[in-house]
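Hey,
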Amino acid sequence: MSATSAALLAFAVVLLWPGRPSVRRPRAPAPSEPASPSPGSQRRRAVVVALVAGAGAALLLGGLPGALGGAVVAVATLAVVPRLEPRRVRDRRERVRAQAPLVVDLVAACLASGAALEPSLVAAAAAVGPPVDHDLAAVAASVRLGADPTTAWAATDPALGGLARAIARSSQTGAPLADLLPRVAAEARAVHRAEAESRVRTASVRLTAPLGAAFLPAFVLLGVVPVVASWLGVLL
């Protein structure tokens, strides 16, 4: 059993060992753009976590059951860990969703003042700040270089989908974009409010589990155990 665990830990060390340094230094990400790990590094970390979890289960159980249990735990961990969303990605998505209504309002105000779409996006990006400013700056730069607006907006966060659809609808039908954006901002605020209320309800439901775990033993000791003991005394 110890030999199996040692082999698993040795393989994990080999995977974690830093590779050969490259001569060319990687490009540093922009200040407003979060540096996301590559799929290869995520896969390697998942394998390492699975091996460590399997080795821990094998050491805890021991013998043949430990070997089988460690293999099951390693496979299950390898299947579950890659599906977990990193906290940094989740935080960025939530911040973009919170900033989306303000972005739409700022773009609508700039358009109502007579500015064009591209300067309006740049002004909104400068006013709102990270992380949504990177998406808006990228869209403005792509449109400035002659890219298709639909393709440029496809690379942005899904929270900006309402703004992208309004711009596409305005370009196809000729409807004033400044008249469409207030409705888009209201819808974005409604979606963000509904998600916040859903998280609050979920948190209130999850809080009942610790409360139940805290009060249930006291209820059993103070209410159930004396009654059962009195019954047993009468019966015996």
